[in-house]
Amino acid sequence: MTQDNATPLAQDPNALPTTSGPLKTVTVGGTRYTLLGTAHVSAESADDVRQLINSGTFDAVAIELCDARHHSMDNPDAMGEQDLFQVFKQGKAGMVAASLALGAFQQRIAEQSGIQPGAEMRAAVEECRTRKLPLMLVDRDVGITLKRIYRNVPWWQRFSLFSGLIGSVMSRQDVSKEDIEKLKEGDMLEATFSEFAAESEALYTPLIRERDRYMALRLAEEAPPGSYQNVLVVLGAGHLKGTGEHLEAPLPDNPTAERESLEATPPPSKLWKAAPWLITALVITGFVIGFSRNTELGWQLVIEWFLINGILSGGATILALAHPVTVIATFFAAPLTSLNPTIGAGFVAAGVELYMRKPKVRDFSTLRHDVTQLKGWWKNRVSRTLLVFILATVGSAVGTWVAGFRIAGALFGSGAA
After folding, report:
1. Under a CB-based contact definition with an 8 Å cutoff, are residues 302 and 407 in contact?
2. Does the CA dihedral 315-317-319-322 come out positive or negative?
3. Which strands make up the sheet holding 230-236, listed edge to edge?
């Protein structure tokens, strides 16, 4: 990238304005990287960014944003413009719900503090656009980070992490001063998971350490040594030390290969992938054993399987205030989808809900605002459909286990024939 029509560079790169945030400089192969540690909820940090860019010292700027967050910044309604049916089909409903929850948390922070989190990133985007400076987005996609967190932590910790995430952002209480202070050192993800990160290496690695390395690798790709004279790198103060150390160490000859490895989502274990098929096989085997003993027992097991699955999954959609047709469809679909791992009850429930209550233009335009309040998740048709999907899925999973144990008890319990 070139510096067309940009203001000539200042002669002395050391003559930088005084900043409220920490600065770290690293020179590699003739390129000087100036890392500015910012506070994500701070008007002073936004002023720091403007002053540094306007000093004329830098011929390129890199910021701690990914393409998705940058697009969301330019188009706040981007989240609501997604094809909901494809979201469910591709298994992205959980990630979309988590992103909406993070956005709701961010909006509450903005309303309380009067400062939009990420104001310094927005300032960098605006100043680069005005001065026609190359802008590089060097952070990892937030969805990938969430997926790697999910895969990296033990399965028993996943529920507490994400229930904590959803619970904290849907709370009606004001965001505490401590949470706002955490945002001054990290970012939205770090503030949300900070309670767990300090004590969990499995969480700290994808949340902090990997992103430090990732941003250094992106700089090696987008602004390799010698490509620019002076590069300003705007990132949260919590990433300053780690990213700086990676830049100071010898950079790999092929940064792309390592960077792509940090974008890969670890596949689930073979046992985890096989579990749904194993459960299906066990349930069907239970039916066969029941009918082999006597027809009455066999039909009893089938009816109990149907009712337990249907009631728990269909009842869960009632909690989401789903359309009555959705509730009925989920009731009949859940017992069948539980025996077919290729399709889930949540997918059926969401599909019917979309058909019965197709979201309107207003729902998409007010989505970000509606989800800042607990009742808004049920009021908005987009977010309510997400709730229908999630709750139907959870209800079906619980129903499968409850009904499975009921079948096992009937066949092999003390009262079995």
Report:
1. no
2. negative
3. 23-28, 31-38, 230-236, 60-63, 135-137
Report the alpha-carbon distance of residue 284 to residue 408 in Å, rounded.
12
The predicted structure's pLDDT at residue 193 = 54
The C-alpha angle with vertex 138 and arms to 78 and 219, in degrees rounded to 5, equals 160
What CA–CA distance (Å, rounded) separates 178 from 181?
5
- Tokens 């999954």 correspond to 313
Helix (H), strand (E) counts: the chain: 21, 5
Bridge partners of 235, per DSSP, are 37
Torsion angles phi and psi, residue 8, rounded to 5 = -55, 150
What tokens were used for 308? 């337990």
How do strand 31-38 and strand 60-63 relate by DSSP bridges?
unpaired
| Nearest CA among 140, 166, 147, 141 for reference residue 90 | 147
Nearest to 335 by CA among 291, 295, 409, 280: 280
Q: Give residue-wise pLDDT tens across range 136-152.
A: 999 998 888 888 887 77
Could you give the maximum distance between any two Cα atoms of the chain, in Å?
92
- In angstroms, the CA 40 to CA 184 distance is 5
Whether residue 7 has pLDDT greater than 70: no
pLDDT tens track for 47-93: 999 999 999 999 999 999 988 888 777 766 555 556 666 667 666 66
Q: Are strands 135-137 and 230-236 parallel, antiparallel or unpaired?
A: unpaired
Whether 128 and 5 have beta carbons less than 8 Å apart is answered as: no
